[in-house]
C-alpha cells in the first residue's frame, strides 16, 4: 500500500509522471459500495443485514422487515473513503520521483549543451540511465487506474412492520485517474538513450534524429540542431515540439475525471403476508444532482509549471439533474426468523451523460461520456440468539466504472459479535470477481452508549485502503 500512502505528496505533475490525480474529493463510485461504517467492517455487506438508519441506501425493503428495531434511527452523520491503485503501481511509483526525474533530464540537456570535456561522458551516461529508468516505469504505469471514493450520509428512519420509511441526504463521488503512456514517448526516450550511448564530443553535429514509429505518428525528430549562434545544441525532449508537425516530443497524458452525486431519497417499505410467509417490498424514489469534472492534460501542459489540476477540474465541470428509483425485497425464514434474504435493484432508470469539454492550448479538445447503470445485489444474513450475526452479499451485475477505472462484481462476507448490547466487534472480507487485484480484509467496532452509537471501520488490501466513521442515535 505504499503508493496509496505517498501519492498525496507525489502526485502533482503529469508524466513526472502521469499520476497527477489522487486529489481529495467526496465521491460515489460506479461500484456498489456505500462506504457505510458497519457494512465496511463486515465485508461491505448490508442488503440483508443493514441497520435501520442505513437501510435506505442498501435495501429499502428492510425498513418493514426487522424483528426487533428502534422506533427511530438516525445517522448524524457518516463518512467514508477508500482508494485503489492498480497492481504493480506501488513499485513504479516508488521508483519514480516524478517531477525530479523529468527535471533531471532537462538539466542534463542543459549541461550537455555546455560541451564541457570534463563532464560530457558522465552526463551522457547519466542521461541514458535516467531515460531507461523512466521508460521502464512509464511502461509499468500504462493504463493502470487510480481511484478514490468518498461518501457522506445523513439519514432519518422509522422502521415499522406496517409501513416503514426513511429519508436521507447522500453526497457521493468518485475520482478516477488513468495514465495513458504513448508508445511514441517510449520511442523518443529509447532513441535518445541509444544516441547518447554512442555519441562522442567530437562528432556532435546537426542531422542526428530519433525515429518515431507508432500509432498515428511516423517522423524523425532532431536530436541535434544549430542554435542561434550557429553552434550545435541538443534538443530537450521534455519541452520541445516537432519542427515539422508542432507535436510535442512527449505526448503521454493523464485522464482525470470525477463524478459527484448529491441525492435526496425517500424510502417506503410495506410487509405483505401470505399463508406461510411474509415478504417486505421497498422503494426509494430519489432526486440526484450529478456533477462531472474532467481534464486530460498532456505531459508538456503539466511540465510548463502553469497548469493547475484543481483549477482545470473546477473550470471543466458540467451539472445534470435526474430522478431515479431503487427497489428491494426482503424475506425472513425459520420459525425464529433468524435468516434473512434480500435483493435490491439500484438505479432502475439507466442514464448517460457527457462531461464538459477540455480545451488544450493547441486548440484541440476532448471530453468523455459516463453512465449511471442499473445494479443488482443479493444478500444473506443470519442472526443468532447469543449476539452473533453473519452476513454475505454478492453483486449479480458486473458494474462498469464511470470512466477508465476497474469493473467490479463484489462478493463479501462478514460477522458481528455483540457484547452486552454495548460493544459490537466486526470482521470480514471482500473480493472482486472482475479483478483479482481488488480484495480487502475488513474490521471495525461499534460502541453503544445510551441512545448514541459510534461506529468505526477500516479495510485493507494489497492495492486498497479505506476507513469510515459514523455517529448515530437509536430511540426505542
Automatic annotation (TrEMBL):
Residues 1-29 form the signal peptide. It comes from the Bacteria. This is Conjugal transfer protein TraF. The keyword Disulfide bond does not apply. InterPro entries: Put_conjugal_transfer. The keyword Signal applies. Keywords: Signal.
Amino acid at each position: 500500500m505504499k503508493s496509496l500512502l505517498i501519492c498525496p505528496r507525489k502526485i502533482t505533475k503529469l508524466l513526472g509522471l502521469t499520476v497527477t490525480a489522487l486529489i481529495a474529493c467526496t465521491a460515489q463510485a460506479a461500484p456498489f459500495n456505500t462506504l457505510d461504517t458497519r457494512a465496511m467492517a463486515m465485508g461491505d455487506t448490508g442488503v440483508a443485514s443493514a441497520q435501520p438508519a442505513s437501510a435506505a441506501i442498501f435495501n429499502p425493503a428492510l425498513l418493514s422487515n426487522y424483528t426487533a428495531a428502534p422506533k427511530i434511527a438516525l445517522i448524524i452523520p457518516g463518512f467514508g473513503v477508500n482508494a485503489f491503485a492498480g497492481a504493480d503501481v506501488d513499485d513504479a511509483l516508488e521508483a519514480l520521483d516524478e517531477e525530479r526525474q523529468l527535471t533531471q533530464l532537462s538539466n542534463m540537456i542543459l549541461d550537455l549543451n555546455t560541451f564541457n570535456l570534463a563532464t560530457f561522458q558522465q552526463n551522457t551516461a547519466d542521461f541514458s540511465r535516467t531515460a531507461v529508468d523512466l521508460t521502464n516505469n512509464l511502461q509499468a504505469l500504462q493504463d493502470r487506474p487510480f481511484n478514490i471514493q468518498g461518501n457522506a450520509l445523513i439519514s432519518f428512519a422509522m422502521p415499522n412492520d406496517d409501513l416503514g420509511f426513511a429519508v436521507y441526504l447522500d453526497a457521493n463521488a468518485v475520482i478516477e485517474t488513468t495514465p495513458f503512456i504513448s508508445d511514441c514517448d517510449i520511442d523518443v526516450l529509447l532513441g535518445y538513450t541509444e544516441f547518447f550511448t554512442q555519441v562522442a564530443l567530437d562528432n556532435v553535429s546537426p542531422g542526428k534524429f530519433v525515429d518515431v514509429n507508432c500509432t498515428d505518428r511516423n517522423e524523425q525528430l532532431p536530436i541535434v540542431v544549430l542554435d542561434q549562434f550557429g553552434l550545435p545544441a541538443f534538443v530537450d525532449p521534455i519541452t520541445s515540439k516537432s519542427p515539422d508537425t508542432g507535436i510535442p516530443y512527449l505526448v503521454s497524458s493523464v485522464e482525470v475525471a470525477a463524478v459527484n452525486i448529491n441525492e435526496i431519497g425517500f424510502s417506503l417499505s410495506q410487509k405483505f403476508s401470505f399463508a406461510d410467509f411474509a415478504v417486505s417490498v421497498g422503494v426509494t424514489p430519489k432526486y440526484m444532482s450529478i456533477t462531472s469534472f474532467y481534464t486530460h492534460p498532456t505531459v508538456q501542459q503539466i511540465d510548463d509549471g502553469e497548469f493547475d489540476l484543481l483549477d482545470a477540474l473546477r473550470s471543466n465541470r458540467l451539472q445534470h439533474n435526474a430522478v431515479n428509483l431503487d427497489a428491494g425485497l426482503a424475506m425472513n425464514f425459520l420459525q425464529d426468523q433468524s435468516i434473512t434474504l434480500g435483493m435490491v435493484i439500484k438505479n432502475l432508470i439507466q442514464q448517460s451523460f457527457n462531461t464538459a469539454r477540455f480545451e488544450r492550448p493547441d486548440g484541440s479538445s476532448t471530453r468523455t461520456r459516463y453512465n449511471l447503470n442499473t445494479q443488482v445485489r443479493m444478500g444473506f444474513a443470519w442472526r443468532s440468539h447469543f449476539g452473533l450475526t453473519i452476513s454475505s452479499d454478492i453483486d449479480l451485475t458486473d458494474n462498469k466504472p464511470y470512466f477508465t477505472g476497474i469493473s467490479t462484481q463484489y462478493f463479501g462476507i462478514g460477522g458481528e459479535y455483540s457484547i452486552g448490547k454495548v460493544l459490537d466487534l466486526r470482521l470480514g472480507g471482500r473480493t472482486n470477481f472482475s479483478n483479482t487485484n481488488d480484495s480487502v480484509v475488513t474490521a471495525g467496532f461499534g460502541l453503544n452508549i445510551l441512545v448514541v452509537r459510534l461506529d468505526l471501520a477500516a479495510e485493507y488490501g494489497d492495492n486498497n485502503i479505506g476507513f469510515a466513521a459514523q455517529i448515530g442515535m437509536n430511540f426505542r
